[in-house]
Amino acid sequence: MTKPIETMWKDGFDKEANLSAPQVNDFYNRESQNIVDKFQNMFAMNIKAIIIGAGIMLIMMTLIGAPFLGLYICALLCPLVIIAKKELNKSVNLSKGQNSYDYLMSFDRWLKGSIETYSRYYRVFYPLFFIGMATQAIVSKAGGKIIALFVEKFPTEIFILGQPYYLIIAVTLLTLIISLSADALYRLDLNIVYGRQFKKLEQLITDMKELRA
Amino acid sequence: MGSDFYQMSILPFAGIIIKICRAYTNSNEDFEDYYQEVCLQIWRSKDNFNDDASWSTWVYRISLNVCLTQLKRSKNGDKKLVSDTLPEEAIDDSKAFVSAEINQLYDAIKHLSEIDRAVILLYLEEKSYSDIADIIGSNTNNIGVRIKRIKDRLNKYIKQQGQEHD
User: Fold this and answer.
1) Facing residue for B138 by CB, picked from A15, A16, A212
2) For the domain that residue B11 is a member of, what is the CATH number?
3) CB contact under 8 A, B114 and A35
4) Which of A8, A104, A212 sits opposite B68 (nearest CB)?
5) Structural domain total, chain B
6) B68/A2 Cβ within 8 A
7) Do the chains contact at A96 and B65, CB–CB below 8 Å?
8) Using one digit for the tens of pLDDT, what is the confidence trace for A70-84?
9) Containing H/E element for B65?
10) Cβ–Cβ of A97/B113 closer than 8 Å?
């Protein structure tokens, strides 16, 4: 006959006179491995990366003779910095001292809200980024030469904004495709990195809700 | 300053943290990682502590919340959220405590879902149903029913393991 678990626990821990705590190695400077902190770090890194990236883009574009494209990309990246900063500030309210249900729910709300905000912006960012790049390519010397070759091979009398109609149609179609797939691309990217954790979190919340029902 | 905080406010409650972290880890390496993470989070959250709850309840809450959302390193290098399965490395932890009974009980506890582990740990620590509900964020009424179910599962598992060893 096995002992009741309460007795096993009590008797067992009575014998564990020295529940020895592991050595703590300067944990105040330790890099956190918690998922909440990882996301916070990711947002903080995003801010730095975007600012550095925007600066590099501006310098590079100026050097290759396209300063307006550099400024345009910088302007597109600015809202991303603001979004990342806002989301980072929101995450500060995620106290780990709440009860487990509130903690998991507030983390889940914050995470879903952040993903939604980012994905809404990417739906605009990617197509606008593409339009900027395409415009620069079209107005560049090399682009002009390629377009001239196309017009020679596929002559047309229909020009829109000074460009052959099929080029404008192609750019419009590509912009539409990018716009429609931006959200899916962003979520796919997130799922590749965090998909397993998201599923696990969902499972935890479902179990918690069941316990509360 | 930091070291004082650890000595004064964490170390006296190390038993709670050890008991909880052991239930969510399968190897000594993970256990030490989780323990340090809990300590780090207690230290970081100390300014949010209010007198509505006791310090020990605060330690329970943070320990459980950290363990539930801790990223665990897997052998192939990717990060997993808590231990949903028992890999072969579970064996590493089978002698984590001196008492064979406790090791046996932990082995059984680790086969429960993460939330059930939290509930039963608090119950075994002699927390009242209302305290458990308060820490987990559940209804007091459901806790009793859930504990009964968990105890049945643990007893069944321990009995099965005993028969296999006989």
Assistant:
1) A212
2) 1.20.140.160
3) no
4) A104
5) 1
6) no
7) yes
8) 999 999 999 989 988
9) helix B55-68
10) no
pTM of the model: 0.81
Residue B95 DSSP label: T
Residue A11 has pLDDT above 60, yes or no: yes
Per-residue pLDDT of chain B (166 residues; tens, 9 = 90+): 467 888 899 999 999 999 999 999 988 888 998 999 999 999 988 888 887 789 999 999 999 999 998 887 655 556 666 655 555 455 456 667 888 889 999 999 999 999 999 999 999 999 999 999 999 999 898 999 999 999 999 999 999 888 877 6
- What is the ipTM, given to two decimal places? 0.85
Q: Is A118 exposed, middle or buried (0-12, 13-18, 19+ CB in 10 A)?
A: buried
Residues 80-109 of A with CB under 8 A from B: 95-104, 107
Judging contacts by C-beta atoms under 8 Å, the chain A residues touching residue B146 are 211
Question: Which pLDDT belongs to residue B82?
Answer: 60
Domain span at residue B18 reads: 2-165
Cα–Cα distance for residue pair A95/A98, rounded to 1 Å: 6
CB-nearest partner of B139 from A2, A19, A212: A212
C-alpha span between A149 and B88 (Å, rounded): 65
**A172 vs B: CB within 8 A:** no
Sequence-distant contacts of B122-131: CB under 8 A, at least 24 apart: B122/B60, B123/B147, B123/B150, B124/A5, B124/A6, B124/A9, B125/B16, B125/B19, B125/B60, B127/B60, B131/B57
Q: How many CA atoms lie within 13 A of B148 on its CB side?
A: 5
Q: What is the pLDDT of residue B79?
A: 61
As a whole number of angstroms, the distance between CA B132 and CA A99 comes to 10
CA distance A190 to A196: 10
Cβ-defined contact of B31 to A22 (cutoff 8 Å):
yes
